[in-house]
Amino acid sequence: MSKNPPSDNLMSTPLLPEGYFVPKSRSVHPSTRMRQLLKSEPYLFGPGVYDATGAQLVMYYGFKAVYFSGYSFAMGHLGTTDMDIYSSVEIADGARRAVSGLRKFQLTLAAGDPEKHTPPKHVDIPPVVVDMDTGYGNIFNVQRTTELYVNANVAAAHIEDQVAPKRCGHIGGKALVPVNEMVGKLKMARATADDCGNKDFVIIARTDGLSAVDAPESKRGMELAVERGLRYLDSGAPDLLWCEFPTSDRGPVETFAGEIRKRFPKANFAFNWSSSFKWFNDPNPIKFSELGEMGFKFIFITLGAQHANGHGLSVLLQSMAKNQEQGYIELQRKEFEPGTDFPTKSHHFFSGVPYHHIVGKQFDAARLGKEFMEELPEEKVV
Question: Active-site residues: which are they?
Fold first, then answer.
């Protein structure tokens, strides 16, 4: 292996032997990197995931952000819906494991697989944005949760103005806390991140005012959503503003952004390109590029991984129910078809076995050097 990095964007790391390299962005804090991307990109898109494997796949395919979805986490972690049934500690730990998995996966890809002539792949670690729901209680719950997120190297989080227990933004019956209470939560999140030493931590303020049925204010609908959004930006705490929209219609999106920018011309927004909408029935679905032009700098699909995993696993299970072992063989044929790129087809490579062999040898770990690998025919095993 070369002693010098083949690119100015790469550097060595003590977690790989001499001659292996990782992107220099590895040493940049995720929050700082997210702020850099928000400034340099027309928009930042984060596919929604709920575990480390999903986050690693997002990274493998070159996406520049990861969205750790609360609804997806509720389904994947507890098999339930998005109504604040899990706790702050649970989702913070899930996010921590996802961030840790991304850092490990960067090393896995950088090591490649010398035995199977798989070259190193150098991929940046995408910053992870995590759902904080309502903060899981009062301002002191927000303080604790923010500290957990910051210490987990999460790049950003969003807080919403619903009462607790909240509900998914696309489930009816939403109620809002008073504006001052929400502003207090935003300020507490900002103060906690700053106190923890992460002044770059990105805070997203979400309002469900557009479709809430219960709020302290007398006004409802767009007027309420805009007023709430302005109050949150007035506090100086959030970096982005998110209004939850009830349908895929573009009119309300344009109206909300336009009204907010009358007072805050440089306001930046987040947009949930929601899995709850039947986009395939929309004759003119709003494009990411259009949203970027309107100031929507962070865009995400909340339950993308849940729907993809549910679809893929359902196809496999249906096939095996009908054709037994042939159903799984058909899956493998698709995975190993020439010209395809499915990194999980070799679960050994994806989970980092070659990396463990290389580094095990470097640190003289018992039976972890490559000399302990069985010589098995490549056409027989992954």
Answer: 168
